[in-house]
Design brief:
Largest sheet: 2 strands, antiparallel
Distance between the termini: 41 Å
Number of domains: 2
Strand content: under 5%
Number of strands: 2
Radius of gyration: 22 Å
Length: 255
């Protein structure tokens, strides 16, 4: 049994998207999400999906890796489609217009999850953490702990796939002892996962405690962090990213 998460581990590569500054990617991702949720026509949404697939192909990210991030939201996608496709007024039945609307909103979710998955597949977590800290740097004037927020964000992203790995280990161990997770109805299958929760949470608390001890022993202080790579962003990259982000925003508003 393979547990998928919407935030995947970094996939090394040498494409233009891998080399792109993480701050630019975060800015473009935010503009892309805005365009997805403000687009009110099929043309606007389909162009956004085409941009996502094009970026994935140019970055040489396998489509199956991108689609794996959709597995945790399959229930949400099915509920969105069914909730719109079937109507209770004036009588219960299938509605073609509702099905079309359900497909539209489901594709919105696909675009959102796909963009975040592509971001984590092409960006090291350290780079994402540094990018968040850099973008939030103006908040330092208001005494906001920017470095701590960036570190929490980075750890949270890192723990998502680790949690899936821990759950897999527990499931495999229980399956080796005779536990069956795929038998019975939906309620029986949910109950079969109850023994997974206790060792999973115990393992997560142990990992969090070990991480806190390691950070304390190394005298972690977010205010005086140093970085191996330089933090300067080329003016040409900044201008190009702002133009691309503005184009995405305008596209979402117009279409």
């Amino acid at each position: 049994m393979r547990l998928a998460t919407p935030f995947s581990n970094y996939l090394p590569g040498n494409s233009w998207l891998h080399r792109l500054d993480a701050r630019v990617k975060l800015l473009l991702a935010a503009a892309y999400v805005f365009a997805v949720f403000t687009a009110s026509s099929w043309l606007g949404l389909l162009v956004c999906l085409a941009l996502l697939l094009g970026a994935s192909a140019s970055a040489r990210v396998p489509l199956r890796r991108l689609a794996r991030g959709l597995l945790p939201v399959l229930v949400i996608l099915a509920f969105t489609f069914v909730g719109h496709a079937f109507t209770l007024v004036p009588a219960f039945g299938f509605s073609p217009d509702g099905a079309l609307a359900g497909l539209y909103f489901a594709l919105r979710i696909v675009a959102l999850v796909g963009s975040t998955t592509l971001l984590t597949l092409t960006s090291p977590l350290v780079g994402v953490s540094d990018a968040v800290a850099s973008l939030l740097r103006p908040l330092r004037a208001l005494r906001v702990p920017v470095e701590d927020i960036a570190m929490v964000f980075s750890i949270a992203l890192r723990f998502i796939p680790l949690t899936a790995e821990e759950a897999e280990k527990v499931i495999f161990a229980l399956a080796a002892r005779g536990m069956r997770f795929g038998e019975g109805g939906p309620i029986a299958r949910l109950r079969a996962f109850q023994p997974v929760l206790v060792p999973l949470f115990v393992g997560l608390f142990r990992r969090a405690d070990a991480l806190a001890t390691a950070m304390e022993s190394r005298c972690y202080d977010g205010r005086n962090r140093t970085r191996l790579a330089g933090g300067r962003l080329a003016a040409s990259s900044l201008v190009a990213s702002l133009i691309a982000a503005a184009a995405l925003v305008v596209w979402g508003l117009l279409f």
